[in-house]
């Protein structure tokens, strides 16, 4: 392991945190709980500190990113923080003209269409992400023994924004390039894999004790195309951070039909979205890897009794797993009452049972 001696893994013993132990299928007193998008628009304190500041400027302001990352830990008492960022931050740092338009999402001024566009992505270097590294250092200095999770968008999803020019559910240009220009598509995903790997390495070296690779749009692909055109580049990301030794989570939206392939990409934990119950995940996966998930985010729009009942249902399914990290099956929805998020955390804390670990 190559983590520096000042890393929280060593000085704050995050290696023995509830989160890391569960991700390693080791004994825990109860499942750890954290939520995707736990820092964001559902928190009034987030809306206050971000007022008038563009999203990517927020991500690249170390003190502001650190403050936002810490907010849900203070308010909800979750077992981990996830560094506040966005999937297009690495390409922004690499010089791509991208902005996040409110109500739309990432918009790329000059989409990638020709082989020559690949030259617009430089070879990644750690100094490209100095602001991110500083934000991580400021965050972990205040987290103490609570672990921080590093974050990156998977190559396919980031590529889709660069090719489409913005969000697209059907991904017509992306799929067309994949099929008609496979060499260019592979070249683009290879560059993005290297960029994501460096982005994650910077976060981990600066203090993150786990990482998650998030693939927002991969569910749009059939398994055949995923295996041929996407999986090798996802595996490359996991391989290029493996020497750091922290747990690696892989999560895709609407991608349960890809679960076996994603589980074999090199991750230590597989995230499961809300469209399938945990106990319906194939036995071969459940016996191999801890799972993360998978409360439907819409449950947090209901009431305390419903939230408790649904949390207990997910916890019950998780007891039969090799290991379980309680989370949503996607991110916290913007209109979610903050108190409902806290209620879900309290329910996990009250009803989660101990796990003896896997020999």
Provide keyphrases for this structure.
single chain; 359 residues; TIM Barrel; seven-stranded parallel beta sheet; two-stranded antiparallel ribbon; 44% helix; 11% strand
What would you note in describing this structure?
With 359 residues, the protein is an alpha/beta fold. The protein has a single domain (8-351), classed as TIM Barrel (Alpha-Beta Barrel). The protein has helices at residues 8-11, 18-23, 44-50, 55-59, 62-76, 89-93, 130-143, 155-164, 172-180, 182-206, 223-241, 259-263, 283-286, 304-318, 338-351, and strands spanning 81-82, 98-101, 105-108, 148-153, 210-215, 248-252, 269-271, 291-295, 324-328. α5 packs parallel to α7 (130-143), α8 crosses α10 (182-206) and α14 crosses α15 (338-351). The model has no long low-confidence stretch (mean pLDDT 97).
């Amino acid at each position: 392991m190559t983590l520096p001696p000042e890393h929280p893994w060593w000085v704050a013993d995050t290696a023995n945190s509830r989160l890391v132990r569960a991700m390693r299928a080791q004994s825990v007193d109860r499942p750890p709980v954290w939520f995707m998008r736990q820092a964001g628009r559902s928190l009034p304190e987030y809306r206050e500190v971000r007022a008038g500041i563009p999203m990517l400027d927020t991500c690249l302001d170390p003190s502001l990113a650190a403050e936002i990352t810490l907010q849900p830990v203070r308010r909800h008492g979750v077992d981990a923080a996830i560094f506040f960022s966005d999937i297009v931050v690495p390409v922004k740092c690499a010089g791509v003209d991208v902005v996040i338009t409110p109500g739309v999402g990432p918009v790329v001024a000059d989409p990638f269409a020709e082989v020559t566009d690949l030259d617009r992505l430089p070879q990644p270097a750690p100094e490209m992400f100095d602001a991110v590294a500083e934000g991580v250092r400021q965050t972990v200095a205040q987290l103490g023994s609570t672990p921080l999770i590093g974050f990156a968008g998977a190559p396919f999803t980031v590529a889709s924004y660069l090719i489409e020019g913005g969000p697209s559910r059907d991904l017509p240009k992306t799929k067309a390039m994949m099929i008609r220009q496979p060499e260019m598509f592979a070249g683009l995903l290879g560059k993005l894999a290297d960029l994501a790997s460096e982005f994650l390495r910077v976060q981990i070296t600066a203090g993150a004790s786990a990482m998650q690779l998030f693939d927002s749009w991969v569910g749009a692909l059939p398994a055949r195309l995923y295996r041929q055109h996407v999986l090798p580049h996802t595996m490359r990301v996991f391989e290029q951070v493996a020497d750091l030794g922290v747990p690696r989570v892989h999560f895709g939206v609407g991608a349960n039909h890809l679960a076996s392939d994603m589980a074999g990409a090199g991750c230590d934990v597989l995230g499961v979205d809300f469209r399938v119950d945990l106990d319906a995940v194939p036995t071969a996966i459940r016996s191999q890897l801890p799972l993360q998930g998978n409360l439907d985010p819409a449950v947090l729009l209901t009431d305390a009794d419903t939230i408790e009942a649904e949390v207990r249902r997910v916890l019950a399914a998780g007891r039969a797993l090799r290991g379980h990290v309680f989370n949503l099956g996607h991110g916290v929805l913007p209109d979610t009452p903050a108190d409902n998020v806290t209620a879900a955390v309290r329910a996990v804390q009250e009803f989660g049972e101990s796990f003896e670990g896997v020999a």
